[in-house]
Write a structure and sequence with these properties.
303 residues; Spore Coat Polysaccharide Biosynthesis Protein SpsA, Chain A; seven-stranded mixed sheet; globular; binds guanosine-5'-triphosphate; binds magnesium ion
Amino acid sequence: MVELDSDLDQRTGEHDLVRRLETKLADAGICSPAPPPMSNATPFQQPRVVVVIPTFNERENLAELTSTVADHGYDVLIVDDSSPDGTGAEADRLAKMDSRISVCHRAERQGLGPAYAQGFSWALESGYDVICGMDGDLSHDPADIPRLVAPIARDGADLVIGSRYIEGGAIPNWSIFRRFLSAWGNIYARRALRMRVKDATSGYRAYRAEALRRLNVSTCKAVGYLFLTEVTWRATASGLRIVEVPIVFRRRSHGESKMGGRIILEAMALVTFWGVRARLPGQGVKPEATRNIDLDRTGGPDP
Ligand SMILES: Nc1nc2c(ncn2[C@@H]2O[C@H](COP(=O)(O)OP(=O)(O)OP(=O)(O)O)[C@@H](O)[C@H]2O)c(=O)[nH]1
Ligand SMILES: [Mg+2]
């Protein structure tokens, strides 16, 4: 039985929180600390970048978000699931005013996973070199995009994750419930699926196009936020070069969270199922396949 300190409060950085929880687990013999990352580098010249933003009821956030992303020089694809609040119409209005913005309308709400899969498929068909994903509620700072893209352009990374759980990452102003949910969800998924990635649930990412194609995300099973973990797991098992860069995740100021019981249940059930299945005799527990390259804490120049 692992006992948690009662003094884990909101002043504690997310990095510290996860490190302390992991130390407890390691001390209790439940897991061992992750081995150090490996290094790899292949330069990449001037990639074409698109930012895929799934939306459901994000009308109030859309204008500020898309203009900020486009002003940084990136194309935007909004993937809207017929939001009742008129996000789709607002997206069309913004797209008419700025040719860098495109919109994909989906007939009904089917979840984050299928929305991302469709957006990624459009981005791959459109010939982009780097495909980013980000939330549509301004929780992810568009100013961080260059730091996500740089390890792909500069160092040959395949997947770059904006991480709240490495040094420099943080989630100020989140409730203690959301902190624990997120921190424990990450630790559970990492251990169950044998991943080294610290923030397997982060939606702020950049993918090298060939790597994303290899992941074949349209066949992912998860429909909720677990989609992001499933993709990370596939990337890990495929031996892709994964980098985490620190981000500060801001609490949304407009609109409502879509996080709910069904999404948590899907995540717990599927991660447990996958983890148990991988350990069954005859299934062959795969060795850790991640080839993490050096964590990029400083970011890099705008590509
Ligand atoms: N297209 C589409 N987008 C979705 C769906 N569910 C959530 N999203 C979007 O996915 C992104 C992340 O969802 P959020 O509700 O912000 O989830 P969260 O970040 O965990 O929760 P808060 O930040 O606390 O609100 C947002 O841009 C949502 O609008 C869906 O079913 N379809
Ligand atoms: Mg959010």
